[in-house]
Design brief:
9 helices; single chain; Rhopdopsin 7-helix transmembrane proteins; transmembrane helix; transmembrane; elongated; mainly alpha; membrane; receptor; about 0% strand
Length: about 260
């Protein structure tokens, strides 16, 4: 019962977020002040961090599209959103993330450790053009898509609630209460998704693009980077555990009732 197109997207999101968690083990080493694994491993670590985070953001956009079609075009959902198409979209999301970040980080990949000023440092530098491209495709465009789709979802939910109230006069009061609850829930979901994404991503991109990262202390830089990664920690809560059926499935699995 869990093998659905939506859950394939959640699986992709879970895979990317879990991988970010593994990479944070190396980030703890960076916080400690010295990189012990050489220039090549430093480049691999930074490269994977960029690719996986980019894939996570791309999957968030795909989930927004999936919800948009499910709510706005429910009768066509089963024909438009199939497992085959979702698998292709997930594959393209990861491939595009890999290609895009390869272009962004090409100088660092070609010559590992070129920006290190001393032994034990793991420095990664990208040009302003690459930085603005990363800002646009990893932050601005995904945010515009997510906000636009969720606003559309909210409007459709309100219109459906209004149609329900007008057609069922006998239970107007009850449906009015339900409609208000639905609107509040939709508003909270929209606000939470946007707020979490902004809070986690904005500090990183602001520091990186203003060039103030060179004047920051090690602890401040580590906090900004960890906050950037923390978005992946919150994604499972927002996109998975808000589903009652998902929580029930997890409970059945971990209590050995399957």
């Amino acid at each position: 019962q869990l093998h659905t197109p939506t859950n394939l997207l959640l699986l992709s999101l879970a895979s990317s977020d879990f991988s970010v968690g593994l990479l944070l083990v190396f980030q703890i080493v960076l916080i400690d002040g010295c990189w012990l694994y050489g220039d090549i491993m430093c480049t691999v670590y930074q490269y994977l961090a960029y690719v996986i985070t980019s894939a996570s953001i791309g999957t968030m956009v795909l989930i927004s599209v999936d919800r948009y079609v499910a709510i706005c075009y429910p009768l066509h959902y089963s024909t438009k959103i199939t497992q085959g198409r979702v698998k292709i979209c997930i594959f393209l999301c990861w491939i595009c993330s890999w290609i895009f970040q390869s272009l962004i980080l090409i100088d660092n990949v070609k010559q590992p450790g070129r920006y290190n000023s001393c032994v034990g440092e793991c420095a990664f530098v990208i040009s302003y053009i690459a930085g603005y491209a990363d800002l646009a495709f990893s932050f601005i465009i995904p945010m515009i898509i997510i906000i636009g789709l969720y606003i559309r979802l909210f409007m459709v939910a309100m219109s459906q609630a209004g149609a329900m109230r007008s057609h069922i006069a006998a239970v107007t009061l009850r449906h009015s209460v339900r409609a208000k609850k639905s609107q509040v829930k939709a508003t909270k979901t929209l606000g939470l998704v946007v707020l979490v994404f902004l809070l986690c991503m904005c500090p990183y991109y602001c520091v990186a693009l203003t060039g103030e990262d060179n004047s920051m202390s090690a602890s401040s830089a580590a906090f900004v980077i960890c906050l950037f990664f923390f978005n992946s920690c919150l994604n499972p809560i927002i996109y998975a555990f808000f589903y009652p059926w998902f929580r029930k499935s997890i409970k059945l699995i971990f209590t050995l009732q399957i």
